[in-house]
Amino acid sequence: MPELTPAVAKPDHVPDELVYDFDYHYDAGLIAHGHDRIAEIAREAPAMFWTPRHGGHWVVAAHFAVHAAQRSPEIFSNGPVPYEAIAAYNATQPDDQKALIPLPITVDPPHHDTYRKPLNKTFSPKNMLALKDQIRALAAGLIDRIKDQGHCEFMADVAEPLPTQIFLALFGLPQSKQREYRDLVADHLHDTDMDPRAIQKRLRKVADVMRETILDRQREPKDDVLSLLWQSDFDGRPATLHDIENYAVMLFVAGLDTVMNGMGLGARHLATDPELQRKLRDNPALIAEAAEEILRRYTFTVPPRFVSEDSEFQGVTLKKGEKALMFLPAADLDPGEFQNPEAYTLNRENKAHIAFGTGPHRCLGSHLARIELQVLYEEMVKALPEFRLDPDKPVTFHGGNVIGPDTLHLVWDK
Ligand code: HEM
């Protein structure tokens, strides 16, 4: 069991009643019980609380507070370093030595819009739907490989390779790069060194693996996302290699880890709910709605923010430079927002979950993510008989900015 980070002293502007001890990486309840611990926080912690772990930071937990905070970028900035400072540094560097910036996720309005606009077209529902058959073939292929063995470790066998293969297909990268990419995913997931130089080194590796294909698509466009990205213009300025690399590393960071953990949480829920599996097998038309309720019940991303000025927010005093986590998983289990939030309920009256966030940074990949998750569940209930958790190998979870199962051992009758 990992140790909690040491608690620091509470600063004077934080009132005692807003202190709640929660280590978002190593909380023992979170690691052992996943979302049951998050539901407890949603029930008992203040709407917005201060925890003494990880140097001391805010956690915005109630649904109304998360909703408002995500729509207040003037208080809650997405970048620890202002975009202007990075852009000024990059202006002095040659293209291949510029700092990589996952755009637009680390940039606040008004610059955010410049980099988000071209992506909205590329990731439109229509463009993503066109990938559905390809995604289905990849999902079916992975499930086919484990079907006859009667068991699998779902994370390694399906949840990691599937989004990796989809990423390669999306970018028109050869599937032969899968091993390289899976190693990059693993490096990215397991490396906790958050020193900006270490992060740059990891992002540079991702960009380097793609460089040849990126340049190739500039010369000779094909029917893939990389070619579409080359058509972007930024308020009249044509795209450069650096822009495309920034997009590529951002999509790698934003799209792989999230989907993999979402798949793990969804498969785990299905494995504990044979009645739901039966319903979905009998009536696959219910899968879209079932996938949405899984996203609400097991919301799993925790985006960070940085307070840009001394401010008051929902009656709470914030100081410039403080870190605040948008605890979306607790917001979607908030009893003030959802009736009986811990129950998994198809046909809920209020279906408006916040799993993809809200405000300017709302997930760009939600159309793609929904297709990936739905197609996976469709293929699982179609190809596998009733599956359940392996009772000898209990699931443990990891915390952090993307919560999910470490391993997920499933079994079924052969
Ligand atoms: C189930 C899977 C996913 C979940 C739950 C998810 C969740 C989120 C959330 C909560 C945000 C907002 C972050 C913030 O407020 O700082 C976000 C942003 C983003 N997501 Fe996703 N995401 C998923 C899959 C994907 C995929 C597959 C892609 C790839 C296309 C993607 C691309 C992005 C991008 C580019 C942003 C930044 C948008 C911006 O800054 O304007 N996501 N995602």
The helical percent reads: 40-55%
The CATH class assignment is: Mainly Alpha
Could you say which small molecules are bound to this protein? Answer: protoporphyrin IX containing FE
The parts where pLDDT drops under 50 for at least 5 residues are: none
- Work out the oligomeric state of the chains in this entry: single chain
Structural class: alpha+beta
The appropriate CATH architecture is Orthogonal Bundle
User: Whole-Å distance between the termini?
Assistant: 35 Å
On the 0 to 100 scale, the average pLDDT is 93
Number of helices: 17
Percentage of β-strand residues: 5-15%
CATH topology, anyone?
Cytochrome p450
Name given to the CATH homologous superfamily: Cytochrome P450
The largest β sheet comes out as: 5 strands, mixed
Quick structural summary:
With 414 residues, the chain is α+β, with helices and mostly antiparallel strands. The protein is built from 17 helices and 14 strands.
Task: Walk me through what this model shows.
This protein is an alpha+beta fold and 414 residues long. The protein has one domain (16-412): Cytochrome p450 (Orthogonal Bundle). It is built from 17 helices and 14 strands. It has helices at 28-33, 35-44, 63-70, 83-91, 111-122, 125-129, 132-147, 154-159, 161-171, 178-190, 196-219, 225-230, 241-271, 274-282, 287-297, 328-331, 366-383; strands at 48-51, 57-60, 76-77, 151-153, 233-234, 237-238, 304-307, 311-313, 316-318, 323-326, 387-389, 397-398, 404-405, 409-412. The strands form five sheets. Strands 1-2-10-7-3 form a five-stranded mixed beta sheet. Strands 4-14-11 form a three-stranded antiparallel beta sheet. Strand 1 (48-51) and strand 2 (57-60) form a beta hairpin. The protein is globular. The mean pLDDT is 93. The structure holds protoporphyrin IX containing FE. Protoporphyrin IX containing FE binds next to helix 13 and helix 17. Residues 70, 78, 104-105, 116, 123, 250-251, 254-255, 258-259, 262, 301, 303, 328, 355-357, 361, 363-365, 368-369 line the site of protoporphyrin IX containing FE.
